[in-house]
Fold each of these.
Amino acid sequence: MLETWRNINRRTRWTAVAVTFVWFATVFDWVWGGLIPDPTLLFATAATAMAIRMRVEYRRRHENIIRFWFAFTVSIPVFWQAGIYFSDWLEFDELRGYIARGGLATFFITGLIWVVWGVERISQRLEAERRHAFNLQATLRHESPVKTKDKKSQAKIWNPLDPQAWYYGQKAPRLNQSLSSFVSYCVTFFLVCIILSQFRGCTQYYDLPAGGGVTETVQRVVKVQKIIRKKFILNPYSAIYYNAPEIDEVKLELSEVTAHQYNIGDGEGEGAGFAGGTNKGSVGFFRLEYAGGDWNQDFGIGGDMNMLIKYTELTGQNVAKQSKAVTPSQLKAFDKVRCPPLLYITGQKNISLGNNDIKILREYIFDKHGMIFGDNGGSRHFHNQFLAMMQRIAGDVKPVRIPADDDIHMKPYQIPKVPIVAPHGGVESLGWFKDGRWICYYHPGDIGDAWANGHAGVSAEIWNSSYRLGANIINYAHVGHSRWRIAQQKSNGED
Amino acid sequence: MIYRKKWLLISMLAMVLVLTMEFQVLYAQTKLTEMSLDRWAKMREVERYQMNIAEKYYKDKKFDVAMSEFEKYLSLYEASDAASFAQLKWSLCLNQLRKQNTAIKEGFQSVIDYWPESADAAKASYLIGKTYVAIGRVPDGKKAYQNTIIDYPKDAVAVYSLAGLAEIAIREKDEASLVKIWKQMTFDIPRTPLIRSTCATAANSLAVYYFNKGVFASGLKSLQTNYKDDQLSYYVYYYSRTPIGSLVGTDETQSMGYKVADQAVGFLRENIEKDVSTEPLKAKAIGQWSQMIELQKYSRRDKEILAAYRSMLGVFGNRDDLLSSIADYHVTQKRFEQSRTIYRQFKDKVAGLSKVAQSFRSELKPDEAVVVYKQLAGIDAENGATWRGAEAATYRQFQKYPQAIQGYQALVKTDVTNFQQWIWALATTQHEANQFKEAIGTYRQCENFPENYKQMAACHRALKQHKEALILYGQIVNGHEGLAPWAQLQIAYTYEAMTSRELAIKAFQSCCKKYPKASYASTAHAHLQNKYKISVTLGGATDE
């Protein structure tokens, strides 16, 4: 392998090192850092360069087949990660999942082949050396082996690459060596995977959109339509012709619109937004990715993205380009103050969260001033699962039916009755109230379906009300978080 | 760990008692929300008329109308003595309409601000706390309760507020405050009619708390504030049994449990009726003995239980009811032979044999049970149908369907008086035996619509006669409002079984649309999405 490396000219060698470094940096930044605003070009360049290189290597494969397979191996993670990135970029969620799993499997198998090949090659070399040292003539002459003073040759062999290592035994050392190599590789591979999946990486930030406003109940837009019917003061069918002058020049339709004249948000900044926000900030929609159930119901375009789009229409605040899903460990990676104010949890099966995940969610609610928005996506079972989860997160807080005149149901949009698509968990919205705020809002009837394309076929009144309720909850969480951020800044003595 | 378990247990028991307390407070609150007769008398006729209209709507649960009527009263007779009451009721209407924040700020608080001297101000003060707790604002509720206690210490609402604080202490696992409140309510507050039940419940809760801690004497002292003589004995038994059971159930507290059991049994023994000369006194004494033995059963000490039974038999002789109780205990301990020996000693042979047969069934010995039932049918010819029915039920229990069906068929023919009972038993047995065609015919003779239609439809579906099943479900939809959503869902499932995809989808959607608030709509909605990947499920509703 080293020989192969040495055969490559110096310029190409360093170019390859530089490209690899850039590629690694891009992947790390994309997954954990977020310093590069748009790594699309870098991924595209890396993937194209790799494809060109592979084409060259394929043509020259007869010169050095090992080099070709080495290049092929190197290309796997490049194409794999690029595939994941571009499917994510194009929002092909299902394809992204397949590429992620397929790439991992290919990477595992390729690594395994290299391990088998490497171990075999080295063990063959060692065997050959041993055969070379072996004195056949002396054995044929039945001469007793010369006792050497060299203790090294008599010592136990510890090298795992040597099939004669003492721990492989006498019976089937090659088989034992192959098995141990396989097990060691598998264990190492899975350990690395587990460690990487737990690796949170750099701190992430969530900024609120800058601006200001008030959160008051939006007055309903009233349209007064005055229709003036034409009144005939003369009989139009009369045999006598009258040149009737136009007596009514009033417009037939009058409309008077009373719209709200203030921004929705919190603080005294300009435009709809939050005093605790920044110019780069936008309102995002984060959902929890958990094991055990279909957390991704109505996720992305045509689903919860509709809610985000409607939110900007209803409030005038900037919203993120796409809704996002976070695992508990990714949620933990967010800054202690600049973290998402609202976490949406939906599904219809089990909510499998470990003690560590629960701890993260508890920290998110109580230390990071977060709020959970639960939505029952399809069963009574999920209702029980959600309540059990909340019992683990906030055991001392009992759920109550949220009053109709609570701020969350009144501001900015008045929700006189909670809209339900299907009564999976009953028809009452529940809330967990602690430290002067709702730490969790639970919607029992699949509000996510009302936001999605087609609105589940429910009436316009229901889905409109569902959007308004969604806007109220998102705004409630953001207003609360904005005030808390400002209070945190003040208590930390910052500007 | 043990501490946590114990605390959990205490909390659960306390919660049960507090719930009882809550109901009592609610009962008292209904009195709180009513106006005294004196005040009614002081009202002018016109005022009384308007108030009655508002009250009528309130009682009819038309709270929005009632609210406007109370409001009307307030605008017409602001200076009247009952104006504060109208304001209070207006706030209660808001509470019912789930506008609790408005009820507190604009309702109850107005009563306190505008009519501070009225009797309703104290009620409003208490109701503020109660409403805050109901909407999850526990710290505000706690503060409001404390203010009520300070502002109106001699009013009944102060005690209700203490009960509210006790409930919060349980939620917050604040044992010290909880015991302090209970002690105050049990021993310090004089019992007036309005607060008697609230204080009594607190005393009971305190007694349970002490029993759980293994302090029998203190528990007894708490109960003595509520009960005397025979009542006290009964409530010692009533409130000590669960703590004894839970203490004995854990290794660490077992000895403590035995101690409490011994003390409780000792107390009951001291107060037992010794004069058994008359039947009523004898019945009373038997009841007290039974309570004593029950306590021993909670302590799970077999030797003591049997000894107590022996003593009881020594006092009262071999009465059938006592023998039955002993034999039943043996059954719970799986000593079937012993139990049957005792059952056979009954003076009432029929009752004894019936118990013997039942014991064979419990021991999964159907043949022996059948023999006894046959014997019973011979001895007790008057009730022959009952015993033959029991025989058939035994066959059915052990899945010997041909014999069971034969038995029920004979009963259908012979016992005309109980025809419906036997025909239903026959139909369900045939259904269980997968004799669907026969079952359908038999169900048809039953008169318990819609249950028979449900079962007939199930049989048709099992026979893959989907069209017949659809007709029956359709009849349920039209004929029984309560089961209509269920039947509509079944129609959808039946279409699905017929592989009529379009019709199944329409039926599921119809279930969502027609019954948007029924749980079956939820099932249909989820099924459409999961199986057919259809997001347009129709339906949609709002909460009440």
Note: The beta strands of chain B are 541-542.
Amino acid sequence: MSFIGTYILEISYIIASVLFILGLKMLSHPVTARRGNLLAAFGMTFAIIATILWHRHNGTRIHNVGYIIAAIAAGLVVGWLIAVKVKMTAMPQLVSFFNGMGGACAALISLMEFPCLGGETHLANMLHGEVLAIIVAMVIGSVSFTGSMIAFGKLDGRIHDWKSPVVRIINIIFLVVIVALAIFVMSRGQVDPRSEMIWMYLLLGIALVYGIFFVMPIGGADMPVVISLLNSFTGVAAAMGGFLYDNQAMLTGGILVGSAGTILTVLMCKAMNRSLGNVILGAFGGSSGSAENDVDGHIKEITLSDASVLLNYSQKVVIIPGYGLAAAQAQHICSELDEMLTNRGVDVKYAIHPVAGRMPGHMNVLLAEADVPYEKLVEMENINPAMPNVDVAVVIGANDVVNPAALDDPCSPIYGMPIINAHEAKNIIVMKRGMGKGYAAIENNLFYHDKTRMLFGNAKDTLQSLVGEIKNL
Amino acid sequence: MEGILEFIYTYKQEIFLVILSVFLGIEVISNVPAILHTPLMSGANAIHGVVIIGAIIVMGHAEGSLAMVFGFLAVFLGTLNVVGGFVVTDRMLDMFKKKPAAKK
């Protein structure tokens, strides 16, 4: 029986791998995305069940099945509850959180597998692929875990950036120490792995701290890039497990995520016109010496009634949403405003910057949640040529993505980043909580522009009053 | 030097698989519209939850209370990653799906 079981197990891993690949492929097309996700989930379930049923360790069945099922059941309930309860605006944090869990899982596996090396003889050669896989999985898993937790905290507004040139040096030292320690462990020769655990714990500790220091200096605006990067890290850590157990499902799944995640990270960086190295070294806030460039002109406010009249008698209105809209939970009321204007014959479109919100595509998710029709969302490249014909551009809680400095100020840290050309519209209304700078902490000339009028206040309240005003017209 | 060569020889199949998977990952991801970046990242996040298989295997031969605690935790966290990842992705994609159908 056990033989047949082994066959079935291997075949089920092949099926699972194919489903992962297909799932990921389908996830990259809007029409098939959902089915792709379900397919991958199905593959995962299949692989898990097959492992519990048919995995053999040195010829014996898996022990502790009761505990395993209990742990899975607990994870199922907790994971499901968290995933269903959390608001859509908090989605990036959530992805980061779950990613951290995967990293921690990989690190724990390494920690448990290491003393088992050498089997009954308790003697193992440290200069071995298995040792390398264990160490790599543990280090990357730990960095991914603490890094994700810090990213989670930053996106949630609990942890603030900590920028200091010292951190960069500390990080390099950490990296050197980790590599040195790994080499040291591997050069120990023929030893009892259990007596080497002290070094493993030391390595674990340093890797965990390194994860914190790795993410700490990176600006909050770059967190999506970091999460994507840590996501691919965890993928690599999972793949190491595949090496260790000669498990093809883990190997393909992990590496697939590792490489896809890296490409995704690069794509995200490209959308912001920055290099990955630039993001990681955190040159954003640090080198903003040019940020205090002379700002001429002054802020002009607009009253609610003026704004409502302006909008009501316009022909083309473009709404440019930013994270401020989502933070104020104003996407529903925004969609109400849009509907009302549309009913009165105004052509309303949304201009979506690739990095609007906290993650690429995040804004689309949020607006979709608020029942904004899909076809009203226009991507940046498509809306920009039409901008000069737009009567009113309404900027809601966005800042850096409409900052003209990205086009004409070579000293600006965001110079070269593609932006939505809000400044080309005939009128611009900017809704903003206050005169605070954007996430990148850069002055925005758009706010001082002749055509710009400001509407200060919480986006939700302002929109609510605006809808009320327009209703009375 | 010999160690490295031996390592490559022992793991030649795995290395092959890794190389192919790297290219596959790149191939699969390129040409993704920006709107799908977030769901895709979330979906990929769920897929690397495959690490749970390792957690099950290691828990399957765990002995001693410390190993049991670690193993239980590993399986639990791995499940969180898998379940949370897939459910969140589904929730996101659910929002995209309704729209064109409902309004068109």
Note: Residues 32-104 of chain B form one domain.
Amino acid sequence: MTLTEKYIREIQKHLPAKVKKEVAEEILDGIRQGMANGEKEADVIEGFGDPRKVALGYAPQIDYLIGPQLRFLYKRILGIVLVAVGIGLTVAQVISLLVTPESLFTFFLKLLGSYYNAGIMIFGTVTLIFFLINRQMEEETFSKEKSWLVEDLKKTPEPSEEINLAENLLGVLFSFAGVILLVFYLKPVDTFVINLALVLAYRWLLLALLFLVLGVALTLLIRRRNSNLLRMLKLLSGMALNGAIIFLITREDFLNPQVIEGFRGSLAVVGTLLENIPLVTVVIILVVTGLEIHDTVKAFSASKERWKP
Amino acid sequence: MDRIVAALGQELKRGSLVLGVLSRLEEEKYGYALIKELGDYGLQVDQSTLYPLLKRLEKQGLLESLWNLVESRPRKYYRITDLGREVYCRLQSEYLKMHESMTRLMEV
């Protein structure tokens, strides 16, 4: 990748999608004009200056809550969490209706209320996390701004080596939360439905896989450079963890048999619904894994393509 | 103090730059040539300032841009529009009036 290509790419990172192509063409034209007049490539780029400042000139309203770099991931994670919690809440409300019968009107009001509360909470939490990541990324850019030099471009990772900062930060956050949960808080958060003894029997396997996921995400965050090996390691560790979770939750004894039996006697529908919770969870995990595989395959093929402004 | 002067000087320049750009685009010009020409008249301007400004003026309809596809590599050039010409004339008289007032103010 040439210096010009790297430079334009850096500018594009701070621009909204709709103007990326147009601005790239214009900057490329400007650099070419400078070079046609006998200036060196590095000197023309130096004349343009800090990529972020150039981008700000094109899109002065760039002070986003969540910048263009993170928006795709933000929407995806928000969507997955909302759908997962939506399904969970619906199942929970239906169970509650069957256990303590009430009018359908009350049921729907309660359901809408729970959607509203959960929606606001999820939207607020996910947005806050992404806002903080976005701010961190902006601060990093600003601290670079003071001493921006063309030389910096040479050290910039190639597109195929770039890491997704937000995705890895979230990976660290969730795997760390998983470790804490397994080590310290398994008992208090245990619900009457899950067979705790089974989870405890596989605790070390789950912990090992969580540490693997955590390690890969931390390595990527520290190195700030991706490679096909790390990409593959990330996918495989994620798949192994997801596979272990699927293995556990699809086992017949994952749900507390006494509770299921208890429901079978009085409320068969509740028992059936409870039995189907693992299935819903498996579907969600499979969708997430599918997206991860898709992203990795895309990144692999992108690493072979040459970037064009 | 230097930083304050630089920042205030930048602010002063920002407004006048539009006038400078409009004044030079009666004939179509490439961005690079425009920078050089403004520099020849003592108005130093960075590429990072000029290119986004040209884009903004184009969006406002004061300039139009065309890609010259005749040469081996396409080149984009700009020229003033009728609306741009009108705006320029009015801005020019505003500027001259302000210049006169400021000169009188600073002489006192």
Note: Chain A is about 80% helix and 0% strand.
